[in-house]
TrEMBL record:
UniProt-recorded name of the protein: Putative esterase
Lineage top rank: taxon: Bacteria
Matching Gene3D superfamilies: alpha/beta hydrolase (3.40.50.1820)
One Pfam family per UniProt: Esterase
Organism: Ktedonobacter racemifer DSM 44963
Amino acid sequence: MNDRAIAGEFVTETFDYDGGRQVTVYVPPDPPEAVVFAGDGQRISQWGRFLEAADVPPTMIVGGHGLTNENLRLQEYSPVFDAERFAAHEKFFVEDVRQWTESRFGVALPTERTAVFGASAGGELALALGLRHPDVYGAIFCASPGAGYKPTEVMPSRIPRTYLVAGTQEPFFLEKATRWAAALRDAGADVVMKERTGSHGGVFWRKEFPLMVAWAFGRE
């Protein structure tokens, strides 16, 4: 699969945010019927090749690049470490990047055709943004979330559909994903929780990604 030609294209733009932050977009060969906004976009955007090989509707991936400094990355991706830095990144991701996507690519998809995705700390970002902006993201895709951002006693009244996955060889992260799945179900959300063979950062994340897209946006 890694050697097959890519029919879509990749577009990278540098924004003024935080002294210059890049966003890489995978543009499918056919007009997009869905869009996934993702953290750590320098890696996740490349997964467009796996969508092309899967039986899913044409899906655009809009990936905001993550920081290599792990402490600063956590502060941007989880609301519990540095509220001010998280809020600044939240505005950039939810407002600036989304508005640019609509303008640059002529994409104005409804909430039910829009998802937010992340893995590890990025999984916390996906959960936080999805729960805080259910009017923007109709689905949350979360792989192996960390332990910074936890379910609250009182959950939002409106929760996007949520697909969680974690690996059998990463028990710490599997427990966190399972806890999130239970809390969201208790709040009445539509939740899928998958346990896969794999370790943290393993290939099962990218293998699961097309399944997430098919679950949220598959043709009727």
